[in-house]
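Ligand: fe (ii) ion. Inputs:
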Amino acid sequence: MEAPFIELNHQKTTEDFLPLQGTDYIELYVGNAKQAAHFYKTAFGFKSIAYAGPETGVKDKVSYVIRQNKLTFVLTTALKNNNIIADHVYKHGDGVKFLALRVDDATDAWEQTTKRSAVSFSEPKILKDESGEVVISGIHTYGETVHLFIERKNYNGAFMPGFIEWKTNYNPCDTGLLYVDHCVGNVGWNQMNKWVSFYENVMGFRNILSFDDKDISTEYSALMSKVMSNGNGFVKFPINEPAEGKKKSQVEEYLDFYNGEGVQHVAIATNNIIETVTELQNRGVEFLKVPGSYYDTVLDRVGHIDEDLQPLRELGILIDRDNEGYLLQIFTKPLQDRPTLFFEIIQRKGAKSFGKGNFKALFEAIEREQALRGNL
Ligand code: FE2
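Predicted complex:
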C-alpha cells in the first residue's frame, strides 16, 4: 500500500470539446420522495428549494429539490405504477438516475457527445417560464444512469421551469457540505475499460489515476478503479469494477443489490471535516468505523497534519497523503436499505488523490458490514 499512486501521462488535447462548469444537480429516483427529502434535510442540512408535482401540473411524479451551498439534490418518486420511475425503483431501489452537468451550451454538448457515439437520452429541449429559459439535453452512461447537460445562463427562477419555489419554515442548519468532489460509478466485470473509453472518447475526459487489484484488495474485497476527470478538473468520475478475491467483492455486492451498474458514492467536500462530521453524527448519520489501532500508526504514514488526532480518532475520520498534500475523509453507511449508494465526506488539504492509503483499513470495515449482511 506504500507505493505512490500511478499517475498517467496524457498528451493535452488542444481544445476541450465538452467544457463543463461542474455538477449542476444529482437526481435520485426513490420510493418515497417526501420522506427522503425530510431525511436529507434533517440529517445532512439541506434546504428546501423547489417542488414539482400534481399542484404544478405534473400528474405522474413528484420531485423535491434541496440545496446546501453548491450541492443540489432532486428527489423524485412515481405517483402511479406502469411508470418508468416506479420500474426504476422496483429494479434498483433508491438510487442516482441523473448526474446533471452544468454547461454553457447544452445543444453543443449534446451534438459533441452524440457525434462521438453517445446514446441520446434527450435531444436539446428549451424549457421556459416567467423566470427565463433552461436548455436541457442528455446522454446515457453506465447502467440506467444518465448525464444531463443543463444550460441555465438565461434563468433566474428557483430551479427550472416546471418547478415552483418550495417555501417552508423547516430548514435545518447546514452542516458545511459545499460541493460534489467526485462521483463514483460501479460497473460490471470487465466493463471498466469500456467506460474509461466512453469518458475519454465521448466526453473528452482523461484517466488521471488508476488502481489495480493489488492496490485495492483485502483478503476479500478486491476491486479495480480508474479515475476519469474532465479538462478543467471540475468533474471527476472514478469507475470501479469488481476483481476476483476469496469472497464476494464489495462492487459485486453493489451490482447484485442495485441489479446492475450505477452510482456507488457521491463524495462531498467540506472545509472543516471535524465540525461537519460531528454535526452529521449528532443528527444520526452513520459512518463506517475503522479500528482504533488505525490511529496508532497513521501519523507515521502521513506525517504532520494541522488537526489534533484525538477528534479524528473519536469521529473515525481517515487521513491520507500524496505528493501535493493530505486529505481527510470518511464514508457513510448506505443511505437506504439496499447496500448501494453512500456518501463520502472529504476535506482536501492540497492532496488531489482519493485516499488509496486508507483502502485496506476501509475495505476491512466494509467487509465487516458485508459479513453482517451475509453477503461476503
Ligand atoms: Fe471517493
